[in-house]
Design a protein that fits this description.
alpha+beta, six-stranded mixed β-sheet, five-stranded antiparallel β-sheet, 17 helices, about 15% strand
């Protein structure tokens, strides 16, 4: 058997990435798609400026996007890949930017990355992949780059700030006396490194105290008692049954090809205030309101669904009890469920309810609770009822219902999910949105954030969304041969 020649003498300048990469390598299609986006105009401000030449914005964006598609989030590892990996060298045209350059570009060009994401949605719509007939909404909780144990209460933060203030005052007074001891090469008023560190520490603690105070003032109940001193913007979020410091990424995906059509980074532990903002986000990103939107019960609140009913989108969002019954139909057969408020039949014309035993609950009075108009309905025929103890434990022995003044409208919105069509749509939700999170966290291995702060999370969330959409675009092109799409 003959032996293949093993020598590098045939290549004067080393192997060409263009020749070495297979013709069907996905990085070629990624390069072609990103080139269509006309990112070269971002280089205009560097064309006639002095100093070290800047790297092309197209190459820097390709590095970040392809790195996240391979689960690489470290700027040092990205720089290493640019030196050693032919696919990365193909994207950068042979350039090898320093890891600091990559890190600064990632942090400073977050608006550019948002624009690139929007363009991927535009390309998908031109190719007929995201027609927005049905959109699923869900959130992914990502642990922050912060030690959960490094947290302080407001009292501890104030105490530490006072100690740092005293220390800085003492050092400043000592420096004024010792200016003459610094020598002829120094002015004598420079701050030593440990003092600069103390000042930075004080600024970090002040920011943490400001964030904690703001959240405590905004909380309706159970205000937070502490804040992370490493990443103050990261709240406690529930992930995998545990509370971790992290962020919540809102993601909306089209049902046909799972193209992400809206993302939003939030520093909130719950999703019940994100339904309407995400409706607006999808319309802004895709240029069109979705026909239908389905979300889980975490997005439900009476105020949210009533507000969403005014939009062009038909929203199917169950409350927690409805969602529990959809997941477990036998739940409604229990004795307590039989006499829940949702089992009482409402007569809109008479403005009264009928209980499962056929007794009537009439309007007793109106009241206002926390600025919300409420109606109270009460039954006067409960004492002789054989199931009274199962229905009510009120001291008066009478069953009453306290509901919003617009409870009839709210009930109709809730019942949309319980129809056969609503149930069928709700079953599709997991299959649309959950695989996206599986790709990010299990396939790509991105289980923890690299950047700190809400702005940093927004950068990483958009990079993951861009990578996912490019994956879908490539698969669609290979399947149907869609070419010639303009950005």
């Amino acid at each position: 058997m003959a032996l293949r020649k093993y020598s590098n003498q045939g290549e004067l300048w080393g192997p060409s990435p263009d020749l070495a990469l297979p013709a069907d390598h996905p990085v070629r299609a990624i390069d072609e798609i990103i080139e269509r986006l006309n990112l070269g105009r971002c280089n205009r401000k560097y064309e006639h400026t002095p100093g070290e030449p800047a790297y092309d914005a197209r190459g820097m964006a390709k590095i970040l996007i392809y790195a996240y598609m391979r689960g690489i989030t470290s700027s040092r590892e990205m720089a290493r890949q640019c030196e050693e990996n032919l696919a990365f060298r193909y994207l950068t045209r042979g350039h090898c930017p320093d890891f600091r350059t990559i890190a600064l570009f990632r942090r400073r060009k977050r608006h550019l990355l948002r624009w690139v994401f929007k363009k991927t949605v535009s390309l998908a719509r031109q190719m007929g992949m995201a027609r927005l007939g049905l959109v699923a909404l869900d959130s992914v909780k990502m642990p922050a780059n912060a030690n959960a144990g490094k947290r302080m209460t407001a009292a501890q933060l104030n105490e530490q700030i006072q100690k740092l203030d005293e220390y800085l005052r003492e050092v400043e007074a000592s420096d004024r006396k010792e200016d003459g001891q610094y020598g002829s090469e120094a002015r004598g008023d420079e701050l030593p490194a440990e003092i600069k560190g103390a000042q930075q520490r004080r600024e970090q603690l002040e920011k943490a105290l400001s964030v904690l105070t703001e959240r405590q003032a905004a909380a309706r109940r159970d205000p937070p008692q502490n804040v992370s001193t490493v990443d103050p913007e990261a709240p406690w979020v529930k992930k995998g049954g545990k509370l971790v410091r992290g962020y919540s990424g809102q993601v909306a995906a089209d049902s046909e090809h799972q193209v992400i059509v809206g993302v939003k980074a939030t520093a909130q532990a719950t999703d019940n205030e994100q339904l309407n903002p995400m409706l607006q986000e999808v319309e802004t990103t895709a240029g069109q309101a979705p026909g239908q939107l389905v979300a889980d019960s975490g997005y439900y609140s009476d105020e949210a669904v009533v507000e969403a009913s005014k939009s062009e989108t038909d929203c199917l969002v169950p409350d927690s009890e409805t969602a529990a019954q959809l997941n477990n139909p036998k739940r409604g057969e229990s004795e307590t469920a039989v006499y829940s408020a949702r089992q009482f039949i409402y007569d809109e014309g008479k403005d009264e309810f009928t209980c499962p035993q056929g007794k009537t609950l009439t309007l007793a009075r109106n009241r206002t609770r926390q600025g919300q108009a409420m109606k109270i309905y009460r039954c006067s025929d409960c004492p002789d009822c054989p199931v009274r103890t199962q229905c009510t434990n009120h001291v008066s022995g009478l069953r009453s219902l306290e509901l919003r003044a617009d409870h009839a409208k709210v009930r109709k919105l809730r019942e949309k999910v319980t129809t056969e069509n609503g149930k069928a749509i709700y079953k599709k939700r997991k299959a649309i949105i959950e695989p996206i999170f599986g790709r990010w966290q299990h396939n790509w291995g991105i289980r923890r954030l690299r950047l700190r702060g809400l702005a940093g999370f927004s950068v990483e969330l958009h990079l993951m969304a861009i990578g996912h959409n490019l994956t879908k675009l490539l698969a669609f092109q290979q399947r149907v041969g869609a070419v010639g799409v303009k950005a």
